[in-house]
Please model this.
Amino acid sequence: MRRTSRSIAALREQAQHCRACPLYRNATQVVFGEGRVTARIVLIGEQPGDREDLSGKPFVGPAGKLLDRALEQAGVEREATYVTNAVKHFKFELRGKRRIHKKPNDQEISACTHEWLEQELRLIEPALVVAMGATAARAVFGRTTAIGKNRGHVIKDAALVNEITADVIVTVHPSYLLRVRDEDRHAAFDQFVADLKLARKYAPA
Ligand code: URA
Model:
């Protein structure tokens, strides 16, 4: 096993005991990043959803299916990437028996980024980070970053949290595409695919 994969494995193991914020109390388990530890592209989402929380794997629910479809259309092999989230525990509120997704707050994002996402990026050293949605963008840049204004091009040598430098593409979160009005959905999906195509061209596997 390469050093990186051992280290990511060690990190994943340590994360199981994370108490850096209160989200561990209600979540089923930590959902750590997954994929190629030598990946050229790291894809970052917000936090695990209901299905991810139960399975322990990132992006396996409806948003994950949509991401898979977009990656395929863009010619990006998911297995060649590393897929992770800004926040590693599912945050939700109970409505009856249903667990409804709740956005992580700034403290939760920065605690989790500092504990885990930073280490993942340092170990993998990807050629490109793809921040999907506002939470991922907030995690990597350490501040609120508008998606609409910043998408569609590579932000080179971006100064990320804690002196990490990386080339970054920001784009929408796949869940956004599930919520968008019917008449706008095709165009929004195509634009997401275009961002992923740009990622493939910029950082081919
Ligand atoms: N949404 C995310 O941001 N991450 C997942 O893993 C699933 C849904």
Observations:
- The chain is about 45% helix and 20% strand.
- The longest helix spans residues 182-202.
- The two ends are 20 Å apart (CA to CA).
- The chain has one domain: 21-202.
